[in-house]
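[recover] target loaded
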């Protein structure tokens, strides 16, 4: 590794080294990740691409601490995610990470306003002005008293983006966040996701199948054969 690249990796917000993961299949272990290395600097964005089944969601889930790796390391700031227990991982997700999935995962019994505030309240970082700014930029200010079922898909995903960014996470993990939306709506939601992540100072790691959407991020990397090519 060159000195410049070494320095960049050491200064990274997210550092993944030698990450491996197999699932148990009927014919024995199914290796999905075979030594993945990845570094992401604070405030930058990376699109994670690769064929269906190449392990993109698996990698994102491991970074989010939602599943356990077989070997390798994941560091976010100076926290070694792979060494945390379940409580530690939950605390990391609350304090440091924002997550947006293809399914909007809003709480149906809470209004848009309360959904927007939920993660920030759980993180102990609720900021009324920032929530209002997010609602305004996401075009949700007139919808704060509605419930998720009263919103369109695009509106629901904008709530999910605002909810994830309300605590000002260091790292936003997004798994095909616009996969459920039509092209024009998805494009607009992604533009907002990137703009507001930059405003919040959040780095973005996003899974997408779309080269057009991936082109909007700072860098692209492709998973193939269990390894990541940058
Ligand atoms: N819980 C599980 N148990 C067993 N196998 C799994 C499990 N989760 C994923 N897999 C398998 O691991 C491989 C990688 O799955 P993953 O969902 O990470 O791929 P992906 O690149 O995100 O795919 P897609 O683009 O289709 O969403 C696939 O072959 C999948 O069938």
């Amino acid at each position: 590794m060159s000195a410049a690249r070494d320095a960049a990796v050491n200064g990274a917000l997210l550092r993944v080294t030698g990450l491996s993961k197999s699932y148990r299949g009927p014919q024995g272990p199914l290796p999905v990740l075979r030594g993945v290395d990845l570094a992401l600097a604070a405030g930058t964005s990376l699109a994670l691409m690769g064929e269906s089944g190449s392990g993109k969601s698996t990698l994102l889930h491991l970074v989010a601490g939602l599943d356990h790796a077989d070997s390798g390391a994941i560091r976010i700031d100076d926290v070694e995610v792979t060494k945390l227990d379940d409580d530690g991982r939950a605390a990391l997700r609350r304090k440091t990470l924002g997550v947006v999935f293809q399914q909007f995962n809003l709480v149906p019994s809470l209004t848009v306003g309360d959904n927007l505030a939920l993660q920030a309240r759980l993180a102990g970082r609720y900021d009324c002005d920032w929530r209002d700014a997010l609602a305004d930029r996401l075009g949700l200010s007139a919808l704060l008293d509605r419930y998720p079922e009263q919103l369109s898909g695009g509106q629901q995903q904008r709530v999910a983006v605002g909810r994830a960014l309300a605590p000002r996470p260091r790292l936003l993990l997004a798994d095909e966040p616009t996969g459920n939306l039509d092209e024009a709506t998805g494009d607009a939601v992604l533009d907002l996701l990137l703009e507001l992540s930059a405003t919040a100072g959040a780095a973005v790691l996003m899974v997408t199948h779309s080269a057009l959407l991936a082109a909007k991020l700072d860098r692209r990397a492709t998973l193939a054969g269990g390894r990541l090519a940058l």
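[recover] notes: DSSP finds eight helices and ten strands in the chain.
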